[in-house]
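ENTRY TYPE: paired fold submission
RECORD: A
CONTENT: sequence, then C-alpha cells
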Amino acid sequence: MIQKSLTYKTIFKFWIPLAATYMMMSIEGPFLSAVIARMVNPKFNLAAYGVAFSFALMIEAPVIMFMSASTALVKNRQSFYKLRNFVYSANFVVTFLMLIFIIYPVFNFFAIDIIELPIEVANLTYKAMLILFPWPGSIGYRRFYQGILIRNNLTRRVAYGTIVRLTSMTLTGLLLYFFSNFDGVMVGASALSIGVTCEAIASKIMALKIIKELKSKNETNNNLSYKGIYNFYYPLALTSIITLAVQPFATFFIVQSRQPIESLAVLPVITSFVFIFRSIGLSFQEVGIALLGEYDKSYIKLKNFASLLVIISISILGIIALTPLSNFWFNTVSGLSWELTQFAKIPLMIMIIMPGLSVMINFQRAVLVEARVTKPITWATIAEVGGILLVIFISINLFNAIGAVAATLAFIIGRCGSISYLIPPYLKVVSKK
C-alpha cells in the first residue's frame, strides 16, 4: 500500500542505523587480528585465522542474501512461513557442508593437497574450523530475522543486534586471551562463533512482536510459492558465491607479481579501511528495498539521497588518501612500517571512488530486487569477477605491475563493468515507476 510522500528525514532515520551496523562490523576484523598478533606464534595463527575465515565465508555464501530476501518478500503469514522454511532448509544444507568439510581427510585434501598450506598452518586452521561449525547456520538465521526488522522500519534493532555481537565477541576474545591456553586462531574463531550466535538469538527475540503481527495477516492474494522463492533467491545466492570465489584467484596472481609480499601485506589493511566508507553503500541496498514502492514518488528521493552519499563518501576518502592523513592511518593506527605506509598510498588513491561505486551498485540492486528482477545481478557479478581477473592478469603479465596496484585497479574496473551491465535492466524497471 502506497503511503504519503517519502521525506529525506525519513530516509536518513531509516538508513543511519544500518550504516552504523556495517561500520561497527568493520571493527571486528582489526580487533581480533590485534588480539591474535599479541599471542604465541602470531605469524602462523594470523595466517590460519585468515584461511579459516575465508573457508567459513565460502560455505556461508549461499545464505548471505537472506536479509535482502526477507526484506523484499516477507509481508504476511504465508510469505513468512514459506521463506522461513526455505531459510531453515538452506541453513541445514550449509551446516551439513560444514560438517563434511571438517571431516579430517576431507579438510586435508583441500587444505594440504590442493591449497598446499604448511602443515602447522593447516593444523591450526582445522582447529578454527571445528569451532566455526555453527557459523554458517547462525548467519542465515540472523539475516532472515534482520530482514524482517528492516522490512518493518525497525533498523535500530539491527544495530542493537550488532552491538550484542560486538560485545559478546569482545568479551569472549579478551577472556580467552587472558585466562586460557588456547592458540590465537582458536581465540579468534571462538569469539566469532559466540558473537554471531548471540546476535542471531537477539535478532529473533527483537523480531518476535513483528512475527506475531505477520501471523495475523492471512492475505491469500499475496501468496508466495517455493518455486517463486527459488527463482527470486538463487541469482542472489550465486552472486555471493561468485563474489567470494574471486579472492583465492586474485591472491594467486598477486603472488606472481612484483613485490608480492608487500602487496599481500598492505591489501588487507587497505581494503578494511575502504570498507569503512563502503559500508555507506552496503547499508543502502536494504534501505532501497524496504522503501521503494512503500511511499509515493520514493524513487526520486532515494536516488537523490544516494547521489549525496556518493559525493560524501568519495570526498572523505579522497581527503584522507591525498593528504598526510593516510600516513596517520597506515603508520600510527594500523602499525605498518614507514616503508609499507608509503607502499600503500598509491593503491589507496586508486580506491578513492570505490565507496561511491558501492552506493551506486547497491542502489541499482535495490531497485531490481524490489521489482523481483534478480537474474541480471548475477550476470553483473560474473562480469565484475571476470573483469577483475582479466585486469590483474594483464597488468601483472603484460605490464609487470606491482600486485597491490594491479589488484586495486582491477577492483575499480570490475565494479565499473558490473554497474554498466546493470544500467539497461535498471532503467527498464525505473521506467515503470
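RECORD: B
CONTENT: sequence, then C-alpha cells
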Amino acid sequence: MQTDRSTHLDGRRRARRLPDRAAFWLLASVIVAFLAASSAPTPLYATYAAEWHFSPVTTTVVFGVYAISVLVTLLALGRLSDHVGRRPVLLAALAVQLVATAAFLTADGVPGLMAARIVQGIATGAAASAIGAGLIDLDSRRGTLVNAVVTPLGTGLGALGAGVLVQFLPAPTRLVYWLLLGVFAVQAAGVLAMRETVSRAPGAVRSLVPEFALPPPARRALLVATPALIAAWALPSFFASLGPGLVRTVTGSGSVLLGGLPLFLLASAAALSTLLLRNADPDRVMLAGTAGIVLGVAATLVAVAVDSSALFFGTVFVAGLGFGAAFQGGVRTVLPLARPHERAGLLSLVYVVSYLALGIPAMIGGLLAVHNADLPGTAREYGLAVIVLALLAAASLLVRGRADRSAPVVVEQLCPRETARQACPTS
C-alpha cells in the first residue's frame, strides 16, 4: 500500500515537471533576461548623471565594478553546478538577481547604483555557466548554438528596450526594473518546475577555489579560440563605451533611443550570423568573423570621419556579423569537447575570457573619452586597437590551421563522426 502511494506521488511529481523542450527555452530566456538586465542601465546613465551630478568617469567605474563582480563570481562559482546541480545554482542566481533589481529601484545615489551593479554581476556570473551547461545537457546539438545566439542578443535587447522606455514612457529609472522583477519571478517558478539535468558529484567545496582546469581534449581548442573571443568581445565594449557619443556626432541627435541603437544592431547581426553559419566549420567561421570585425570597424571609422549616419549604422551591422561569427565559432570549437561534468567549468573559462575582453577595453575607452575631447580621435585609436586584435586572431588561426586539422580525429575518439563538428553527447 505504501509502495503504491509512493509510486503514485512520484508519478504526480513527474507529471508536474516541465518538459525538456520547454525547459530548454526557459533557460535560453533566463540568460537573455540576465544579459538584458545587465545592459538596461546603459541608457539610464545620462539620467542618473543629471540627477546625481556625476561625471563620465563615474559611469566608467560603475561599468567596471559590474564586470569585475561577474569575473570574480565566474572564477569562484563557475564549476559549482557540475557538483550540486544546475537548478540550485540557477534558483540562487535568480534570487540574487531579484535583490539586485530591487536595489536599482531603491538606489538614490552613486553608492546605491554601484552596490546594485555589484550584486547584479554576482547573479550573472553565478548563472552564466550553469545555464550554458544546462542548455547542452538538455539538447547537446542545439545547446552550443543557442548559447552563442542568446549571449549577444540579450545585451542588445536590454539596451534597446531600456532606451524605448526612457524615450517614450514615464518613470524611466523605475519602470524597466519593475518589468524585470516580474520576468525574474516567473522564470524562478519555471526553474522550480524543470528537472535536474546533471547528477550530483563530490567536490562542491573544492570547486569554489578558482582553478583553470581544462579537459585535455579542449586545451588546444581553447588556446586557438581565445584570440578570436577577445577580438569579438572587444567590439561590443567599443560601442558600449563610445557608441552613444559617436551617434551624437554623426546624427546631431541626443536621442537615448538612437544612442542604444548601435549595440542593438551589433547584437542582432551577431545573432543572424550565428544562425546562418551554424553548420559551417567552426575554424572557418572564426576566421570569417575576424575578417568581418576588421572590415566593419574600419568602415565605421570611415563613417565617423565623413559624418554619415546611414553608413555608420550599416557598418555597425557588418561588424556585428563578424562579432557573431567569431564568438560562435569559438564556442562551437571548445564546448563539444567537454563531458557533462566538465561543461560548466569549461564554459566559465570561455565567459571569463569574454568578460575580460568586454570589461577592460570599455573602461579604457571611457577614460580615454573623458581625457580626450576629440571623440572621433578616441574612437579611431580604440577602433585601430580592435582591428589589430582581430588581425592577430586571424593570423593565429591561419598559423595553427594545419595542425588543427587533426582536431576532428580527437573529437571522434569521444563521439561519432556525425556529431564531431557540433556536439559531443558523451555521458
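NOTES ON RECORD B: The mean pLDDT is 81. The chain has one domain: 17-195+215-419.
STATUS: closed
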